[in-house]
Each structure stands twice: as structure tokens, then as C-alpha cells.
Write a structure and sequence with these properties.
alpha+beta, seven-stranded mixed β-sheet, 54% helix, elongated, 18% strand, 754 residues, 29 helices
């Protein structure tokens, strides 16, 4: 299956989005066709052997929309700015003409209310036709500048037969305009003194374009996080070619180029340091504020900031292969995906506009044919039955808003996933985000997840007349020629302590036991208890057993045939592991450690991390089955791991969470990737999920509540029982604010602390 993301042109509301989805999903060979109304993008998965992209684009074009290739960040930002500028211009022009229109139309009524009915009567009876002609002249520019609403609305209604939000606005305002034209003709040619309703047309169109303008600005802010990521990469790079340092565009950098980066500059692409040392700020990708030391052989992440040293490094990944590009791709795919919680809103949006049109016509007919006596007895000013029914008709068409429903889920997902990306939490889909909200059990792999993932020297117990420094210097010098991981831990400890290591005179490796060397004329043995033979005494054996009970591996050291020291080595827990476990437990989440290590070592590590439940001695191939057993018992399980052997378990879990410092296969298998590589981000991911889903629920509640409340009021149901009647102009304000309120609520997620 091929996967593509397209930009959609011509989409104006949630009903348009559903129309495109319906069109695409009917095409044979298309398995996924999800439209994100907030980003105006189509995520497509299709079988290229069955259907071509050209055929899909053509089908969508016939439905009235254009599919365009994804734009670069700069082009998309420019296009958005042009769209907002166009809406601003329409709003200004509309407001300039609508304000005097409203004053002229409503001024006489205001005079009446303020005790001057005589002036009101004099204006209406002596200047009726002049008044209406002026109002018509002021209304026409507003209609013209917003003509797209009519072309799109009526085209969708009569040509595509798939009405959208523009169809409702076009029908409502067109009805008011045409009826007002009839009244204007009567005033001019028959000497009547009717009051037209041009102000309703002008005010509604102005408020609609104001709402669209506010919506476009707010939409731009929901995607701010991804835009910041896109702007991180530098535009140029300094590379060495033909022994000369030259500056090239970032797109011209190729794998193998030697790149020079000076203090304060950004790393252009990913690579490996070949010369120099520095500290690097990687916070833009990991969310970790502390700079990371880099030296020869260390990996460089593109777009990170070089803090204090000049380095040279080889480019290993460029263009779309860099870590930054991959992160942007993951976030974009997540923002284009749908969460299951959106299913009900999608189903309603699909049928919403046709249902509203039917409701509007039924209400119009009901009030016109059966409401005359009630209108005459209860309506203030006793308006004509036809106009009262028309006001009901217009109010229903204007107040109904599928856009709030369509925006409720994608805007929150956009802001939530963007917030996660800024904090080193990459959520791959809306479904993963929603599932994480339900997690009650977190299973943690031990090695590399709870622990650092490589052995460290934890204890040096000295026997005899040697100091710890002497023992470590001998041991590190001896192990320097060894390739065993435990020996490497001893060498690293010696280097960390600044010891000067000694060259050994002889070196012998004894398989399964240890090493024997001669240093400064001394015969030194380092290894397990089998290498020591009968040298062990009871007190030394007791000390070693005590270290083993703590989950540490004791290594024995003898000098000239006498036990000189026990060096304990262990894979220590990460500094933040205990804090992370406590935070998860405080959130009501059960924490389980899953490992292939022996029960004694596992119990010791679990105790240090504050984990009560341990599943130890599990073979790599059985980890997925263990997760399945937990799920069978009714638990929603998240698996956290970093190794190749964790991949099956990550896939089996309801949510797979990969530690960012782990293997590529683990990260590919996971639903959520933690770039920081520490466990505190697990709690952050679940917290973000909970906050985002709660935000979506708030949006959906408001969108449903708004329509459930406003539509019956617009129909006149409350008016029948002595309640208020919804003025079409108030309906326009309410409709515009409904979408904006959903967007503003989603934007609150940017302030969430995770």
C-alpha cells in the first residue's frame, strides 16, 4: 500500500470534508481516505496496482475539490498568510458598508424605542423608497465581495448535490435579499412603505466572514508546533570540498560530506563527529534542557545547536532521512489521522446539512400555514406571517454549524501532538493518543529502560593493604586488553577517576573464568569464583553473596595468589527511574517490570526503582505472550522498551512506547516514541493523552450542546412556550463563535504542563 498526503483546495466546512472522504473511500483500491478539516489535508493509502493517483485526483475534482501536492513549510505559510489577508480585506469592505446599512435600517426603530415614534413614522412614510434604495446600494458591495459563498454554496447544492455550510448561508441570505428586492419594487412602483431586510443580509455576511477570519487565524496557531519544527533546520551548511571550506544550500549536502560547525551555529544534517569536541543543545527534539557532550564517534542530530566548540563531522543522513524530517513526518501523519472518538461527530456531520435544510423548509411551511394567528397574537409589532416564517427559515440555516463538530477532534489532536513533539514525545496517530488515555497498566522492560543498559562499577571492597585507587588502577590496566563488557565497565571507571593506566607485561584470557596478567611484576587475576579456586575465605564469600543479593555481579581480584578485592559491577537504574515509577503510580497506574534476567537481579532492580510486581526470567520470544496474558485478564496495557527483543511485545500491547535511544526496529514497532530516552516521559505521554482526550470531549460537548440548544430556538419552539425568538443576525454571531470557541479551547493545550 502506498501512502500519500495531499493538500485540499475548495473545502469550506466539515460537510465538505465528509463529501471528500465519501468520494475517496468509494474508489476501488483505496484503503484509507481521512480528511483533516483543521489542516485541510487528505491522508491517503491506496494500492498502486489497482488505482493511480491521477484517477483519485480526477474523482475528487469531479466532486468539486482540488488535490494538490504537499507544499513546503515556507509555501504553505505564505499561502495561509494570503488566505488570511484575503479574508481581512473582505471583512473590512463588508464592515465599511454594513455599518451605515445597519444604522439606516435600524435607526428609525431606535428612535421609536427612545420615545420618538413620530420621527420613525415620518421617515418611513415620506422616504420609504429612497430609504430602501440606499440600503440596496449599501448591501450590493457586501454581496459582491462575498460572492464566493454563493457560487460555492449553490454549486454544492444544485450541481454536486452535496450541500455544505456555504449552501446554508447562501440560501438564507439569498432568501432575505430576494424578498427585500420585492419590497423595494413595491415601494418604488406602487408607493408602498415596506421596510426591507437588507441589514440582515449585510450583517450576516459580515459576521460570517469575521468568523472565517478568526477561524483561519486560530487554525494557524493550532499548527504552530509543527511550523516551529520545520523552521529549526538551517538554510545553509559549511562543507569541505577539494580541501576548501565552502557554504552550500542545505539541499546540496550529500551523505559523506565533511561539515564544519562553529560555536552558536546549528547542525545542518545528521552525522558522526570526526574531529573536535563540544556540547550540543538538543532540546528542540528531546525537550531536554541540559546540553549533551559530543566527541569523536558521537552522533549529531541535525538542527541541534552547537554550544561551545568547533567540530567537524561526516554527514550520514540528509534531506528527508534526517531525524528532524522523520519527526516532522511522524507528527504530520499523527495530525492527519483520526481518533475513534471522532466517529460520532463524523457520522452527524455527514448528514447534518441536508437535515438542516429539511428542518428549515418544514419550519417555514409550518409557521406560514399554521402559525398566522399565533404570530399575530404574540409577535411584537405583528409582522406579516410570510416574513416571520422567512426569519425562522433564515435563522435555522444560519445558526446550524457542522464546522464546530468537524473541528472538535482534529484541532485538539493537532495541538496535542504538536505539544508532545516539542517535549520529546512523538505520538504516531490519533488512535494511539486515545488508547493511551485508557491505559491502567504499564509494563517496563528492565535493561535500557529502567536501567542505563550497560554495566557500571558500583562497589570496590578491598582486602589487605591496598587502597581502592591502587586496586582500580591495577584492574583497569588489566582489563584494558579485554573485550568483556564487565571489564569495559572497570576500564571506564578508571578513566572517569582520572587514573593513569599501566601497560601490562603479559595477558592471558581464560574462557569462562577471567583474565591473568602481570603488571609491574605482580601476578594479577580478575574473574569469577572458579578462577579463584581455593583462595576464597568465608568472610570474602559472605561479602560477595551480599553484593549478589543486591543484583550486582561480583568480580574477584587476586594479587600474587591472595584475594585483594571484590569489584561489583551492575547495570544501574537511571537517575529518574524511581521518580517516573512513583509518578505513574500516583496517576493510578499499575507498574510491572518485565525482564529475562534472573529473579534475584530483577528483584533488586525493582526494589531500587520502587516497583512491587516483577515478571522475571522471561525469554525474548515470550514477552509478547506475557502482554497478551495481561490483556486477557482485562487490562489496558502499555509496553515500554528499547530493544529488538521488545518489538513483538510493543506490537502486542494496546500502546507500544519506545525509548528514543533504543533500536530503530523498536521505534518502528511503537505507537509512541520518547526522544529523551528516560522514563519520566512515559508519564508525560499518558498525561498529554488524558489532557487531549478531555479537551476533545469538551469540544464535542460544546459542539453538540450548541446545535441542540440553538436549532430548536431558531425553529421557534421556545417562542411557542413564551420564550425568545432567535434573530437571524444573532444566529450569525452564534454560528461564527461556535467554531472559534472550539479552536480557542483546543489552543489551551499549548499551556498544559507534561
Amino acid at each position: 500500500m502506498n501512502k500519500r498526503i495531499f493538500k485540499i483546495e475548495g473545502m469550506t466546512c466539515a460537510s465538505c470534508a465528509k463529501s471528500i472522504e465519501r468520494t475517496v473511500r468509494r474508489i476501488e483500491g483505496v484503503s484509507v481516505g481521512d480528511v483533516n478539516f483543521a489542516t485541510e489535508k487528505l491522508t491517503l493509502e491506496y494500492d498502486a496496482a489497482v488505482v493511480s493517483v491521477v484517477a483519485i485526483i480526477e474523482k475528487v475534482k469531479k466532486a468539486g475539490f482540488e488535490l494538490l501536492e504537499e507544499e513546503s513549510a515556507d509555501k504553505e505559510a505564505l499561502r495561509k498568510q494570503e488566505e488570511i489577508a484575503g479574508l481581512r480585506k473582505r471583512l473590512i469592505v463588508s464592515a465599511i458598508f454594513t455599518l451605515p446599512l445597519f444604522i439606516i435600517a435600524m435607526g428609525p426603530h431606535a428612535l421609536h424605542l427612545f420615545g420618538r415614534p413620530d420621527v420613525h413614522h415620518w421617515i418611513l412614510h415620506n422616504f420609504a423608497w429612497q430609504n430602501t434604495v440606499i440600503q440596496l446600494a449599501l448591501t450590493l458591495p457586501v454581496v459582491i465581495v462575498n460572492w464566493k459563498i454563493y457560487t460555492r454554496g449553490f454549486n454544492a447544492l444544485f450541481v454536486k448535490r452535496s450541500p455544505n455550510m456555504d449552501s446554508l448561508i447562501a440560501k438564507g441570505t439569498a432568501a432575505a435579499f430576494v424578498y427585500s428586492l420585492y419590497l423595494t419594487g413595491a415601494n418604488i412602483f406602487a408607493g408602498a412603505n415596506y421596510e426591507p431586510f437588507y441589514e440582515i443580509v449585510g450583517v450576516i455576511l459580515t459576521l460570517i466572514v469575521m468568523g472565517k477570519f478568526m477561524e483561519a487565524v486560530a487554525k494557524g496557531k493550532t499548527g504552530e508546533a509543527i511550523k516551529k519544527l520545520m523552521r529549526l533546520a538551517p538554510k545553509t551548511a559549511k562543507v569541505v570540498r577539494n580541501d576548501e571550506e565552502i557554504e552550500v544550500l542545505i539541499d546540496e549536502v550529500v551523505v559523506g560530506d565533511v561539515i564544519i560547525v562553529k560555536p552558536g551555529e546549528k547542525m545542518p544534517v545528521d552525522g558522526v563527529v570526526i574531529e573536535g569536541a563540544t556540547s550540543v543543545d538538543e532540546s528542540m527534539l528531546t525537550g531536554e534542557s541540559m546540553p549533551v557532550s559530543k566527541g569523536v564517534g558521537d552522533e549529531i542530530i541535525g538542527a541541534s545547536i552547537n554550544k561551545n566548540g568547533s567540530i567537524k563531522y561526516n554527514a550520514t543522513k540528509v534531506g528527508k532521512d534526517t531525524a528532524l524530517s522523520q519527526i516532522i513526518k511522524l507528527v504530520e501523519e499523527a495530525q492527519g489521522s483520526k481518533a475513534p472518538i471522532a466517529a460520532l461527530a463524523d457520522a452527524i456531520s455527514e448528514k447534518f446539512v441536508p437535515a438542516i435544510i429539511i428542518i428549515a423548509f418544514v419550519s417555514l411551511a409550518g409557521w406560514f400555514f399554521f402559525g398566522g394567528d399565533f404570530i399575530a397574537a404574540n409577535a411584537n409589532g405583528e409582522p406579516s406571517t410570510i416574513w416571520f416564517a422567512m426569519c425562522i427559515f433564515i435563522a435555522i440555516l444560519i445558526v446550524a454549524c457542522p464546522c464546530a463538530l468537524g473541528l472538535a477532534t482534529p484541532t485538539s489532536i493537532m495541538v496535542g501532538t504538536g505539544k508532545g513533539a516539542q517535549n520529546g514525545v512523538l505520538i504516531k496517530s490519533g488512535e494511539s493518543l486515545e488508547t493511551a488515555y485508557k491505559i491502567k497498566t504499564v509494563v517496563l522492560d528492565k535493561t535500557g529502560t529502567i536501567t542505563v543498559g550497560k554495566p557500571h562499577v558500583t562497589d570496590i571492597v578491598v582486602f589487605g593493604n591496598y587502597s581502592q585507587e591502587e586496586i582500580l588502577r591495577f584492574a583497569a590496566s588489566a582489563e584494558k586488553r579485554s573485550e568483556h563488557p564487565l571489564g569495559e565497565a572497570i576500564v571506564n571507571k578508571g578513566i572517569e577517576d582520572g587514573l593513569e593506566l599501566i601497560e601490562v607485561e603479559t595477558f592471558t584470557s581464560i574462557t569462562g573464568q577471567g583474565i591473568e596478567v602481570v603488571i609491574e611484576g605482580k601476578f594479577v587475576q580478575i574473574g569469577n569464583i572458579r578462577l579463584m579456586g581455593d583462595k576464597m575465605r568465608s568472610d570474602e564469600k559472605c561479602k560477595a553473596d551480599g553484593l549478589a543479593e543486591q543484583g550486582k555481579t561480583p568480580m574477584y581480584m587476586a594479587i600474587d595468589g591472595e584475594i585483594a578485592a571484590i569489584i561489583a559491577v551492575a547495570d544501574i537504574i537511571k537517575p529518574d527511574s524511581r521518580e517516573a515509577v512513583e509518578k505513574l503510580q500516583s496517576m493510578g497506574i499499575e507498574v510491572i517490570m518485565l525482564t529475562g534476567d534472573n529473579a534475584q537481579t530483577a528483584a533488586a532492580v525493582a526494589k531500587d526503582a520502587g516497583i512491587a510486581q516483577v515478571i522475571a526470567e522471561v525469554l525474548p520470544g515470550d514477552k509478547a505472550q506475557t502482554i497478551k496474558d495481561l490483556q486477557t485478564s482485562g487490562k489496558k496495557v502499555a509496553m515500554v522498551g528499547d530493544g529488538i527483543n521488545d518489538a513483538p511485545a510493543l506490537v502486542q500491547a494496546d500502546v507500544g512506547i519506545a525509548i528514543g535511544g533504543g533500536t530503530d526496529i523498536a521505534m518502528e514497532s511503537a505507537d509512541i516514541v520518547l526522544m529523551r530516552g528516560n522514563l519520566t516521559s512515559v508519564a508525560s505521554a499518558i498525561t498529554l493523552s488524558r489532557k487531549t482526550i478531555n479537551n476533545i470531549k469538551q469540544n464535542l460537548f460544546w459542539a453538540f450542546f450548541y446545535n441542540v440548544l440553538c436549532i430548536p430556538v431558531a425553529m421557534g419552539v421556545w417562542f411557542l412556550f413564551g420564550g425568545p425568538l432567535l434573530d437571524p443576525m444573532i444566529a450569525a454571531i452564534a454560528m461564527s463563535l461556535s467554531s472559534v470557541s472550539v479552536l480557542l479551547n483546543a489552543l489551551r493545550l499549548r499551556r498544559v504542563k507534561i
